[in-house]
Amino acid sequence: DRTNERCLTRNRFQVPSHCRECGEPYPWTQKTLSDTANLIENEMSELTSDEQADFKSSLPNIMFETSETKLSAERIAKYLGKVSSLAKEGFKHNVFNLASECAKRLIWPS
């Protein structure tokens, strides 16, 4: 299926988001997650509180590829479709460099 094609890993340098040994997020990833959670709470009032909570809980799954990446990226893309262009740009600015390639292709397909 075409979605799986978009999730194939490409050979590009990506800022590491977590320790490959222990799996813990690096400090810059923690800061990005925190900043983005604040953005969701403060700038995405178009979303219900349940949608905001779901959005925030999906964030760690797009930082590196797991079995949850595809579903989380699709969920985030759906929520981004409901918010202002300013909020979308803020979200992209926050997470683009740390998101996995699969998540990037699903959230920003063009």
Ordered list of secondary-structure elements with their pairings:
Blueprint lengths: L1 H5 L20 H17 L5 H10 L1 H4 L5 H12 L4 H11 L5 H7 L3
Short description:
With 110 residues, the protein is mostly helical. The chain has seven helices and no strands.
Task: Round the Cα radius of gyration to an integer and report it.
Answer: 13 Å
Mean pLDDT: 87
**Helix-strand category:** mainly alpha
Tell me the series of helices and strands, N- to C-terminal. Answer: HHHHHHH
Q: Please tally the β strands and state the result.
A: 0
Largest sheet properties: none
Query: Unreliable segments (pLDDT under 50, ≥5 consecutive)?
Result: 1-6
Beta-strand fraction estimate: under 5%
Helix content: 55-70%
Q: With helices defined by DSSP (H or I, 4 residues minimum), what is the helix count?
A: 7
